[in-house]
Amino acid sequence: MKAASPFSFPVSPALTTKLAKLGLTRDADLVLHLPLRWEDETHLTPIRDLLPGQTAQVQAVVTDASVAYRPRRMLTVTVEDAGGVLGIRFLNFYPSHLKLFQPGESFRFNGEVRGGFLGLEMVHPRFAKADDATPLPAQLTPVYPTTAGLGQATLRRAVERALAAPISDTLPADWLAEFGLPELEASIRLLHQPPLDCPLAELESRSHPAWQRLAFDELLAQQLSLATARRQRKSRPTLPLPPRQQLTAAFTHALPFELTAAQAHAWQEISADLAQPHPMRRLLQGDVGSGKTVVAALACLQAIENGFQAAFMAPTEILAEQHYRKLAPLLSELGVRCAWISGSQRKAERTAAWQAIAAGEADLAFGTHALFQEAGSFVRLGLAVVDEQHRFGVGQRLALMQKGIEPHQLMMSATPIPRTLAMSFFADLDVSVIDELPPGRTPIVTKLVNAARRDDVLARVREACLAGGQTYWVCPLIEESEKLQLQTAQDTYAALVEQLSELRIGLVHGRLKPNEKLAVMAAFQAHEIDLLVATTVIEVGVDVPNAALMVIEHAERMGLAQLHQLRGRVGRGSRESVCVLLYQTPVSELARARLKVIFELTDGFEIARQDLLLRGPGELLGHRQSGLPMLRFADLERDVALLEAARNLAQRCLAHHPDITARHLERWIGSRQSLSTI
């Protein structure tokens, strides 16, 4: 039996497959598959009026077509109209093309005009059979995002057929008037088929009211989805973990410092959340070194003093073990039994640790993704702490959730999230912010140094280490790359050993065996190494207070968040701290902008905002891992007012208009369950 088409019109199985690659699985998807750009094919330009560099459309008759072999195989076609001759070249073509371009046949060609050896020409223009009786389009021609094997003409026909049906508006007319928005159907049809008098600049900049309507609807769908996920979570039961003031009070009393006001406030919010009968999903964000780990430890202790277990997960073994080594001695004095799970452990050690966890003999388990990848189980998992949450995919976090019966979850991020991102992609979470650094943190001086002054930097490193300090020297790659001729960690290590022979120098990178990597880091922390050459494996969480100098090779190649994270490895002690950013010239405009931001700013939240402006939300969120689709039409910086309005309207819809909510989510999300799955 032939499978029914998922569309309202006949579509072949082959075309259905190609459309699915673009996420187009129903009429509504095609209707919202909007053009990348538009081309003017509404008029013809006589050949005699063509100019080099111009993009134009001509109608002409073929006078000659042949295959040439010098300098490479190509199809050359000569065409003419009443006033001139034009050359057409195809470097890639099929044998059928030669049969198509028969002398006397009339075609329209659209492309860029070039000055050729024998006169004006077009290379690989778009073309279609046409004569004087063939009407010209009345609107601008859309050019759609597509995939291999799916031509514009086929895609346009599919979109046109989907547009044949009326498009209902999910929002009432009085709401449109309230927000100053045009009708949806008029907006969509204008964007697919703009009239000739439509300002092309407004279309291309997406400032046209039609684009604003689509951006608003997209943001509203996102806010509805995330708010729905939040409501559903709050309706699910879990066991409350109220504050007992036993282990938590003993821990804060044992700390050699007072919590900052920001830490105390964040802890109060988390403690209150844990006491609720629904699962906590809270994001704890704060700048590098703001003291998030201590707050997370308090959360673990509140779970443990209620008779539950806690899991503390980090993305790298170095960071996970550092959390373990820093917290386990303090917690063991309080009678808390800690376990350590890692991929590098011997099988017997790992088995013993899992047995202790499964038997309830371990209260707190530290580890990497091994905590959820393995078959081990928790007897009573009450809280999962996920450090650097953006590095874990949704599926990975869900796997950890399945280790317990709907445990509470605390996610941490040292990459501050700009307000607009928090309002949009994290709208289903509660957010706590630690916006001050503990007292005693020394300010970090950032210096931009041309790589040509490398000898001066070496002298500074020698002086700092011989005075009793320690230094990081960070390189972006492990081994030589032909594409990116960057200084490698291995080459740098060899050169520094020779140039700074009086210093004890170590090397750590991601391809070392885990136990070797941890041994090098332990030696650096014990000051058995003066200068540590490293890749960005030391980006997150490494804490060596005596290291007050960092040199970053090829800083122009790194992103703002990474540079800020790396810089945060120094400034953790009483020594004056300096971060030297070595850059190679020439520097691209984007890299220059990044270096300017990191040189001028130390506030992680403002750096994150600038990063959003430079890169967009996709890379900041790590969307390939996040499970959250990116916005297609809205821009979080440009459309802040629309986001605020969509956020407020989403609350009204959920409270009073469930029918509108359902229709809107069906149009924008369809079979996808949610824009956020946890």
From TrEMBL:
Q: Which organism is it from?
A: Thiobacillus denitrificans
Name all Helicase ATP-binding domain ranges.
273-434
Q: Which SUPFAM superfamilies match?
A: Nucleic acid-binding proteins, P-loop containing nucleoside triphosphate hydrolases
Any idea where the Helicase C-terminal domain is? 453-613
Q: Which UniProt keywords apply?
A: ATP-binding, DNA damage, DNA recombination, DNA repair, DNA-binding, Helicase, Hydrolase, Isomerase, Nucleotide-binding
Q: Name one GO biological process term.
A: DNA repair
GO terms for MF: 3'-5' DNA helicase activity; ATP binding; ATP hydrolysis activity; DNA binding
Role description: Plays a critical role in recombination and DNA repair. Helps process Holliday junction intermediates to mature products by catalyzing branch migration. Has replication fork regression activity, unwinds stalled or blocked replication forks to make a HJ that can be resolved. Has a DNA unwinding activity characteristic of a DNA helicase with 3'-5' polarity.
| Assigned protein family | Belongs to the helicase family. RecG subfamily.
Q: Which lineage ranks, top first, belong to the organism behind this chain?
A: Bacteria, Pseudomonadati, Pseudomonadota, Betaproteobacteria, Nitrosomonadales
Reaction catalysed by this enzyme: ATP + H2O = ADP + phosphate + H(+); Couples ATP hydrolysis with the unwinding of duplex DNA by translocating in the 3'-5' direction
Q: Which domain of life is it from?
A: Bacteria
UniProt EC number: 5.6.2.4
Report which residue ranges the record marks as coiled coil: none
Q: What's this protein's name?
A: ATP-dependent DNA helicase RecG
Listed NCBIfam families:
PRK10917.1-1, PRK10917.1-3, PRK10917.1-4, PRK10917.2-2, recG
